[in-house]
Amino acid sequence: MGFKCSVCGKEHDALPRDMAHHRPGGYFEVPPDERNKRIWFDAGVNPDLCVIDGSKFYLRGVLAVPIQGEADEFRWGTWAQVEEENLRRYYELWNEADVSNEPSFRGYLSGGVRDFADSDGLEVIVELQSNNQRPRLTVVLETHPLAIAQHNGVTLEDVHAFVLPTPA
Ligand SMILES: [Zn+2]
User: Fold this and answer.
1) What distance in angstroms lies between residue 4's CA and the mean position of ligand 1's atoms?
2) Which of 67, 64, 69 is nearest to 160 (CA)?
3) Which of 60, 81, 100, 137 could form a disulfide with 124 if both were Cys (CB 3.0 to 4.6 A apart)?
């Protein structure tokens, strides 16, 4: 069912509240003809884990920003490069119902989020979530626009720009 968009006045199927990045940025730095050999990634087995060259470890988490005036948030599914021990721990706890006592750890965005051009490589806090929800990512550098968005929230107009072409 379509709806009339309050932002641009056009009909959309829906205004999504999620946008997924399906590969870490590091994936695209490997030439296509070398990926089979150098990258461990199988979306059919687990679309949230990736290892490159046996030495670079990535997980997909959720980087969320509140939407101003709404109870909802907007979420990017995006990737963080983390230490091997943290990736192993995450995998160990995959089926744990309660990981609320698990300490958070640090990582670095790999690929960032599309609408924040310089977000690639930003340091993030990674918090594992109970019941197999994806880890939550929080930008450390408080002055970065993406951190400010995480603190202050974004508007529906911003969400529109994240997920849809700009209104003509
Ligand atoms: Zn619209």
Assistant:
1) 8
2) 67
3) 137
